Amino acid sequence: MRNKKLYKRLVALILAGCVVVGSSAVGFAADTEEAAARLKHNHFWILGTKISDATCISPAIYNYSCRCGETKTDTFGLKDLLNHVHKEVRNAEDATCTEKGYTGDIYCIDCDTRVSKGKRTNALGHDYKNVAEVPATCVTKGTAATQQCKRCDYIVPAQSLPTDPNNHANIVKDVAVAPTCTETGLTEGSHCGDCNKILIAQEVVSSTNHTEVIDPAVAATCTETGLTEGSHCSVCNKILIAQEVVSSTNHTEVIDPAVAATCTETGLTEGSHCSVCNKILVAQKTVSALNHSFTNYISNDDATCTEDGTKTAKCDRCDVTDTQSDEGSAKGHTSVVDAAVAPTYSSVGLTEGSHCADCGLVFKEQEVIPALVPDTNVDFHLNQTGVLSSHRVDVATGAQKDAPALQAVTSAYTNFSGLTVFHGTLANGERIMTVALIGSDGISEVDITLNVVVNTDVVAGYRLMLVNADGTETELSVGSGNGKSSFALNFANGAQIIHLVPIAE
User: Fold this and answer.
1) Are residues 437 and 415 in the same domain?
2) Per-residue pLDDT tens digits for 64-89
3) Residue 28 DSSP code
4) Residue 294 near residue 313, CB atoms below 8 Å
5) CB atoms within 10 A of CB 136
6) Other Cβ atoms closer than 10 A to 4
7) Helix, strand and coil in the chain, % to nearest 5
8) Which residues form the domain of 27?
9) In the beta sheet, which residues pair with residue 473?
């Protein structure tokens, strides 16, 4: 540090002397312009601003100027052996699992001087991962589970496992051989492809012997030969009993009698054919039909109010009849009143009308009066956190106001007709169950207490709270057994609403 300060002071003194000398020279030149004109011109350079500092390989660089206006750049002073501008790291070494590392030395690229020395770094040590056991086979040894370094692949020496005569890695299937009628077969087996040990022995399968199939006899015809009965094996097709040829027979003549012609059907002359093969030996000829003869027509009494009736005659030769229109036999209409019918809850009604008593023609059509529709909606209040909320449910359909419809409980039953039970969630998130007796005229109000039975899964996990008219609730007693749950309800006030309150766990 002390030498560096002395060096800087020396450079400053030299620069000051140059400035003084330069100034004197300038003054002298100004006073002796005439002499300067007589002499040849030589540049007298004056030191100016510094461009760059001195480095380990170069003095500082300055601007120079002459009175004539010329300028240049040049060095001045000494090198700064301690100012290394371009540096690099050399001899750096990365630490390994077992070897120390080195941060590297700092060298000047320009003068190749080592600026600073590096430091040693500790070895990293092994970073282990588990290596699975390699099982031994019938022909190769295995190794026990061990550890391996993730960086250098060093493996902790593992215990060698002896060969395992029962671990066969290369199992080869011995294909089954199907037996034939005359040759034995083999069952499927297996063996080890490495040590050849038999794992599943193949067993001999007995030959199947021939499976006899009868080749039926073929009867000889009048013109074709036949065959005797034979047989063959259905598996290998070997002939067991050969069929023999049976000679053909001759025709056996049968008389085809003549057929008399009728009114509508043609007749036939006498002919003949073979009774065995049905070949025509003497062809029958067609005799023309005689046609019908109708002479006596009788009325059928089938005239309507507006249409003539018919009359029928029987053929003089056969039982066939001919029917024709009986002109002028129409009878005209007979009007009848159709009484009005009042509607009920279970059926529609009708207005008064009229029709013809004979043909049914409607003079005045009866109009349908819709059946009376019972009101099965029930309005109730539910007490939720001290606040009564209003709800409406159709106990006959499960429909709700402002919420999805309730689901029918199909498993519900009691000893009274018309029981309907629905369950589901209200718009406010509470679960309820509706129980009602539905008759033809709507909700039944009968002063009777019934035992209602449902599947246990419908009410499992809930307290059954009967909702009263004022919004208060009364807990029901529930009995359970054999997958069923039951509770008693009185239907004097019609439909009942039950609040399903979850049982706290």
Assistant:
1) yes
2) 999 898 999 999 889 888 899 899 99
3) H
4) yes
5) 19
6) 11
7) 10, 40, 50
8) 2-76
9) 467
User: Does residue 483 share a domain with residue 383?
Assistant: yes
Average pLDDT score over residue span 274-300: 87
Across the range 422-446, mean pLDDT stands at 92
C-alpha Rg value of the chain to the nearest Å: 63
Tokens linked to 87? 């540096």
The verdict on 429 and 478 lying in the same domain is: yes
Angstrom distance (rounded) from CA 371 to CA 442? 12
Percent of residues, the chain, with pLDDT higher than 90: 38
Please tell me the pTM assigned to this model.
0.33
State how far the Cα of 212 lies from the Cα of 210, in Å rounded to an integer. 6
Cα–Cα distance, 203 to 356 (Å, whole number): 94
Residues 389 and 494 in one domain: yes
Give the pairing of strands 253-256 and 245-246: unpaired
User: What is d(CA 406, CA 86) in angstroms, rounded to the nearest whole number?
Assistant: 87
Euclidean distance between CA atoms 78 and 55, whole angstroms: 9
Alpha-helix residue ranges (DSSP H) falling in 39-172: none
Instruction: Answer yes or no: do 63 and 95 share one domain.
Output: no
Distances (CA, A) of 159 to 97, 132, 164, 238, 245: 23, 12, 15, 66, 85
Q: Assign 7 to helix, strand or coil.
A: helix
Beta strands in 456-495 (DSSP E): 462-467, 473-475, 479-481, 484-490
Q: Are 383 and 469 contained in the same domain?
A: yes
For residue 187 the two structure tokens come to: 């069952």
CB 106 within 8 A of CB 113: no
Question: 48, 64 in Cβ contact below 8 A?
Answer: yes
Distance from C-alpha of 308 to C-alpha of 422, rounded to nearest angstrom:
63
User: 54 and 134 in one domain?
Assistant: no
Distance CA 355, CA 361 (A): 5
Structural domain total, the chain: 5
Assigned domain for 268 exists: no
> Residue 505 has what pLDDT?
66
Residue 102 has pLDDT above 70, yes or no: yes
Closest by alpha carbon to 317, among 364, 261, 357, 277?
A: 261
178 found inside a domain: no
> Which two three-digit tokens encode residue 50?
């510094």
Q: Is 302 left (phi over 0), alpha (psi -120 to 50) or beta?
A: alpha
Task: Round to whole Å and give the CA distance between 464 and 455.
Answer: 14
Q: How far is CA 243 from CA 220, 222, 239, 439, in A?
A: 13, 20, 9, 82
Burial class (CB in 10 A: 0-12, 13-18, 19+), 389: middle
pLDDT number for residue 474: 94
Which strand (E) or helix (H) includes residue 90? strand 87-90
